[in-house]
Specification:
The protein has one domain. 77% of the residues lie in helices and 0% in strands. The protein is elongated and about 30 Å long.
């Protein structure tokens, strides 16, 4: 996940904290919309 954080920091000019919050927001959104994918989403974003 650090690679995604680094990319958000570089390409979207976000701070480390902002990048992490963005990822958490996206993760929550996807799980709310597609609860059957929760396990996969957790595996992707928690690695």
């Amino acid at each position: 996940m650090q690679e995604l954080i680094d990319r958000l920091k570089q390409e979207a000019n976000l701070s480390e904290e902002q990048a992490k919050k963005a990822i958490d927001t996206i993760k929550t959104f996807v799980v709310e919309k597609f609860p059957m994918l929760e396990g996969a989403v957790n595996n992707i974003f928690d690695s």
